[in-house]
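Inputs:
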Amino acid sequence: MSDSRHSRRAFLKGAGGVAAGGIVGPSALASSATESTTRAPKRLAGELDVELSINGAKQKVRCQPRTTLLNALRNHCDPPLTGTKLVCDHGSCGACTVLVDDEPACSCLLLAVDARGKEVRTVEGLANEDELSPVQAAFVEHDALMCGFCTPGFVMSITACLEKNPGASLPEIKSACAGNTCRCGTYPHIFDAAVAAGGRMRKGGSK
Amino acid sequence: MSVQSGPQWKARSEMKVLNTDVPRVDGPAKVSGRAKYAHDIRLPGMLHARLLLCPHPAADVELLNVEPAKRIAGVVTAAELADRPDRTIFLGQPLAVVAAETPEAAEDGLRAIEVRYREGGWAVTPEQAAAEDAPRISRRQPNALTERETGNQGRTERALEGADATIDETYVVPVQHHCCLETHGMVVDFDGERARVWPSTQAVTGSRGEVAQALGIPADRVEIVCDYMGGGFGSKFSIGPEGLAACQLATELRRPIHLMLTRTDEFLMGGNRSGGRQRMRAGASLDGKLVALDAEVWRHGGIGRGSNPGQPYIYKAETDSMRIGSVRTNTDANRAMRAPGHPQASFAIESAMDELAYAIGMDPLDFRMRNLEDPVYHRQLNRVADEIGWYDHPNRETPGIPTGGTNVGIGFGVSTWGGGGRRVCVVTVRIDPDGSVTSSAGSQDLGTGVRTYVGSIVAEELGLAVSQVTGRVGHSEYGPANASGGSTTTASLAPAVKDAAHNARVAFSERLAEWLECGPGDVVFANGEVRSGTNERMKLTWSEACSILGSDPIVATGEWQSHLQTSGIHGAQAVKVEVDTETGGLRLVKMVCIQDCGLPLNRMALRSQINGGMIEAIGYGLFEERIIDPWLGVALNANFDDYKLPGSTEMPELVAIIDDDDERQQVIGMAEATIIPGQSAIANAVANACGVRIRSLPLTADKVLMGIQEKA
Ligand code: FES
Ligand code: FES
């Protein structure tokens, strides 16, 4: 299963899960509720221990096959890693972005079991002791956050982009966070922060 | 300035901290994932709860049996909501709740609930609701009700007849959603005696009373904690049905309950900005006067009243009249949303003003100024016109015509808001012998930077760096504070912080005077030192000064001081847009906003707020619209895939200007105003580019293309 390319979206659709439907009304919510009068809801039985490597440390996480990586981080890890946010659970906002083998990924679309054997980095793993990473520091200096709920996702997307190419241009930076949504409207300051962080990473050669 | 006089803001030129760019103090916690929001609270034994929502706009609940849910592995309990109705009246009305050991099990439990509905007659669109045979939505009143009439319609009719040019057009705005990234909800930890509660709220103080009532215990046994919250925009004043459900479970189970809405729940029951329809009949004279306006304003707020301040909004008409009312539908009630009613009013009047200007062949900027009495708007409009390049723009008096290629247009709009405060907050400033300083207020930081100025106002007063003062907010134990709505936080809270800081300084000066061999009025706090104002050599470092306190810290409180704040703000915005006249696609090139706000507390946070207002208006203007199928009564886009929010690739160049010509030395709240006119300016820019006037939001490519076709 770990080699498979299952996305959770396809997985949920296959399982008839209510969370996968975009349409709400008689066709989704109601049917799943009313049909339950005649048949038990489909669910995958049993829990299992999944060994994950998170921010460089191995951890055994007890969860179910259907548990998303996001859910595993936030609710099944010890201590819980709640820096990664649950916002849409649909792959459409980027708030749950983590790096999987250095590639940005929506952890709400990934099953925890599919993260076995991969290196997962979360926002909690970026700062060195108390020293913020260049991207994090630039976010603070440029006020690239307001309520801050989208911030970890943006920090991860920009980190992935700049670690690959600290010289990324503004359009490249914009497309690196095209999957992230900020309702408070911090985009212009995020762009400023990303450009500044790139500059610092080029000079310092730091990660 | 003598310390004996009442608190006064320093002259701007003397400020070291305020009116500068201050990085917010909770930035490091937010960028590193350490900031704990209600969503992130994890307690031993905590259960995850989910709500069951009615999937019909209106239905009789014929059967609701939660027992099967209780048999699902991991589910701890399932219950009907205490006040659940037999007949639902809006799409998404919550009915039952499940609590389980894991979020997955809670979802399983939800699906196991046995429920049977008999769909009743319903109306989800204003047209359906206003129809003759429409089912009655509220027992108390008809679905469509005119609530208020203003002006003399007969006189307006006569003035319209005498006008040189008239328009008669209807402008439609959709229902928009707040889309707080953190959904509504709370964590409740109740042991039967006392409760600790983490709500995602705009009202720490108000939540305490609501929770106490729900749990049936005195308010002084409820502690509210909201260190961080992921956006409110007006939708999070009350604990809501979700909060009541969490309290109900906590009472039954005596285990910590985590109940946060899912994204779809949030769309269906978490509130919205009301839509509306406004018919504007307006007339102008050839010399550019708005001589008459008759407005018929309908608000669409679901089962709520909707919101609109009325017409002619900011402009002055020689004669005007209006009828205003609401049409109810079987959808969630509207709630306050950043500048409630104003963006709706703005879209109709700013569009109508533009149409009239072109009808008399006048520059729409000039036409606006002729009908705006307040000179501040003239100054601000000139400034944004300069910045956007209006004076070099070809289509100033006549809109362009579709070229087949790209057309460029510019549009304008203005805004207003109150932003004054009131007496609620009590703030405590404490200076400890070890040199630490805290400033505490039971307010909340929605992302506006409240926590930062709660500390930085004190730092300014005591001549310290921002990092030397700990600003503390988000806790009911820190004292009473008003709810954060209507941009009232700054003008209610900042004066109380200033007063507390002032009182702390006076008290500290009295303790230090003897050591510095000067009068208390001559003690100077500057650059991290305390010195005598009469003898340069008599000075103490901050830690030396504090150590003199021995074991008696300074504890000073402060209250609201009316003279430190005022109300009444202005803003103007300009937008440059590119219209692809082949596809109808729009690209925003540049957007400029100038905003006054009295005394700026933190310039960087202000620019963030201004950007945020412009960007939410871009969403309203270009993308956002709740869609409910009128035949099936089904919500079609209650998720972030199909409800489009503005993203990074749609950002134009954004220019946020703080209006420094506003020299008022008092603080005023400003966040609402920045969201008001952006969508109107965008619509005006499209019309200016190619002569296509879109009178309903959002300005999607299909509407623009249809308009271009009609012109051809
Ligand atoms: S929560 Fe995963 S993309 Fe929104
Ligand atoms: S800072 Fe609030 S959503 Fe981005």
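Residues 1-40 of chain A form one domain. Flag for discussion at group meeting.
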